Each structure stands twice: as C-alpha cells, then as structure tokens.
Amino acid sequence: TVEHRGLTPDGVTLSCMLDALVTGGLVEEAMELFKDWRRSIAPNTIMYATLLKGCASAGQPERAMELHREMEAAGLMNLVAYTTLIDVQAKAGNLEQATVLLAKMEKDGCTPN
Predict the structure, then answer these.
(1) How many other C-beta atoms lie within 10 A of the C-beta of residue 70?
(2) Pick from 17, 56, 11: which is nearest to 33 by CA?
C-alpha cells in the first residue's frame, strides 16, 4: 500500500486510486479503500462522484442513495453529483426516484444541463 512505501496519501492520490478501481470494474475495492482512508482524508465531491459512477456500472442504486445521504450531510452535493446520481437511478429503472432527485436538484439551485 501507499503507507508501506512511506508515502503520505492525500486527496488527489485517493481520487486517482478510486477512479482507477472503478474504471477497472473493482467497485467493491474502491468502496473499501474509500472507507479505510476517509478517516484520514476528508472526502470531496470528486471522490463521491467517482463512487457514484461505480454504483451505476455495478447496478447498485441503493448504495448510491447511501452515498447521497453522506454527501448531503457533508454539504457536498453539486450538479455533477446530482446528475450522476440521477443517471444511476435511471439506469436501474428507478424513474420515480430519478424524478424526485431532479426536483431536489432544482430546489437546491442546481440547474440541469
């Protein structure tokens, strides 16, 4: 791991590693890495959006909603996060949930693009 090599991981390192894992189809590994490192590195919207992208590719709409709740609590929801989350729900056939999220996005001042 990064720590064993004497390196101090940071947000950029974690974001890149999460993206590599998700892109490689290793969504569970990305989730575990995020869980392990979030104690020492403050999560950001890029990290969460990457994990949401993983939820979309893995067909995990419920897990995406869990991440959404964490993001809301941390004040990290933005246009990218909303559109990715809506995509996850739409791909899973959860059109009602996608519609609710679209309305919430607009209410929160994020204009759909």
Answers:
(1) 14
(2) 17
From residue 63, how far is each of 71, 91, 103 by CA, in Å? 12, 14, 20
Cα 94 from Cα 87, distance rounded (Å): 10
Q: Among the residues of the chain, which ranges form H helices?
A: 11-23, 27-37, 45-58, 61-74, 79-91, 95-107
**Mean predicted lDDT score pLDDT of the chain:** 92
- Dist. CA 10–CA 8, nearest whole Å: 7
Amino acid letter at 41? I
**Residues whose CB falls within 8 Å of the CB of residue 24, separated by 6 or more in sequence, listed in order:** none
pLDDT tens profile 14-66: 999 999 999 999 999 999 999 999 989 999 999 999 999 999 999 999 999 99
Identify the band that residue 111 occupies on the pLDDT scale cut at 50, 70 and 90: confident
Question: What distance in Å separates the CA atoms of residue 28 and residue 32, rounded to the nearest whole number?
Answer: 6
What distance in Å separates the CA atoms of residue 79 and residue 60, rounded to the nearest whole number?
A: 20
